[in-house]
Amino acid sequence: MSTGSPVGSHRVVSPAGVLPQAADRLDDTPDIAETEVRIRIERLNLDAASYRQLHTAHHGDGEAIRAAVLDLVERRGKMHNPQTGSGGMLIGTVEAVGERSPLGLEPGQKIATLVSLTLTPLRIDDGLERWDGLSEQIPASGHAVLFARSIAAVLPEDMPEPLALAVLDVCGAPALVRRVVARRAHARSTVAVLGAAGKSGSLSLAAARDARAATVLGVVRDDTEAARLKATGLADRIAIADATDPLALAEAVAEALDGRGADVTVVCVDVPGCEHGAILATATGGTIVFFSMATSFSAAALGAEGLAADVEMLIGNGYVPGHADYALHLMAADPALKDLFAIRIEEAR
Ligand code: NAP
């Protein structure tokens, strides 16, 4: 048994010299190195931007979406959508633990991986026959591999698995929002969350309030989402706007925040084209968290420069220490948040 690289570079098939996330193809064989862990997979959770792209590209044809996912995983040895660059995560049961794995996992434990599917060796062995191609969550059989430098969370026993999977997929968002808002505590901030009735959006609202933001504004795309969000009480104010329409978005945010831009803007929308609206909607000296995987670095950087906007822009790193526990804590503490997630999971079935 080989030791294996802690960052998984021994699993890279091509191109040579890159880390697994940047690889075109990974080695998905089930034999593990001494530092690896093999997971028997039970359910995949496709990243929202990736699923939306697949759904659009295949005109909502479930069979075609299923075939596309199978083909991607087969060709790449991982679920890495080349169009969005994103993946998702999975839940499963620990099947084998290398004797030098530092992850502290034991065979038989039910876990969620907290590293992206874009860097997780993955092989599917049931042809995804239990999935109709019409949901972000995929019942699946096969195996996945974790490296020494991976993260996983043991699933809470008191939470349904689909809910835990949905929460843990976006758990980086609330932890980052809490950090950013708490850092500005000298002047309590106004926080605007775009895509506020979605999964990462609603958790971000809860985190902003937990971090004692002065005002929490939820921006949603239509009346239905506004009513749904209002029922949760997560937002102090609600605005309706298309986040891809920069002028309309900035106007809606300013109107909701008494004529000012937001001190902190969090982009949790799952479609491209929200960079310029987020910049225009943010006050001078404010911070934008681009959690969305549909964000374009060049559109954000050049857009801010072109608007002479003095704003700090953060890429939503999916990892913040303690992120899983914090997201699960927010969920457990607020039944309304749980209800919102339940609706989304049901709709996505
Ligand atoms: P989600 O639950 O689907 O929420 C997205 C929300 O945005 C939905 O409420 C959606 O409304 C809304 N929306 C879509 N288009 C809009 C528009 N033009 N204007 C205003 N609102 C709009 O998605 P999620 O799971 O929270 O994921 C959100 C983003 O985070 C995705 O891009 C995903 O890839 C990314 N993500 C990032 C990480 C990371 O580590 N950084 C991890 C996981 C996910 P409808 O439902 O009506 O369409």
What does the model show?
The protein is α/β, with parallel strands linked by helices and 349 residues long. It is built from eleven helices and 14 strands. The chain is 34% helix and 23% strand. The protein has two domains: 147 residues, no CATH class; 176 residues, Quinone Oxidoreductase, Chain A, domain 1. The mean pLDDT is 96. Helix 4 crosses helix 10, helix 5 packs antiparallel against helix 11 and helix 6 packs antiparallel against helix 11. The structure holds NADP nicotinamide-adenine-dinucleotide phosphate.
How many H/I helical runs? 11
The strand line-up of the biggest sheet is 6-7-3-4-5-8
Give average pLDDT, whole number: 96
| CATH level-two architecture of the largest domain | Alpha-Beta Complex
Bound molecules: NADP nicotinamide-adenine-dinucleotide phosphate
| Helix and strand sequence | EEEHHEEEEEHHEHEHEHEHEHEHH
CATH superfamily of the largest domain: Medium-chain alcohol dehydrogenases, catalytic domain
Principal-axes geometry comes out as: globular
- The top-level CATH class of the largest domain is Alpha Beta
User: In terms of per-residue confidence, which ranges show pLDDT below 50 for 5 or more consecutive residues?
Assistant: none
Approximately how much helix is present in the residues?
25-40%
CATH topology of the largest domain: Quinone Oxidoreductase, Chain A, domain 1
State the secondary-structure class: alpha/beta
Q: How many beta strands in the DSSP annotation?
A: 14
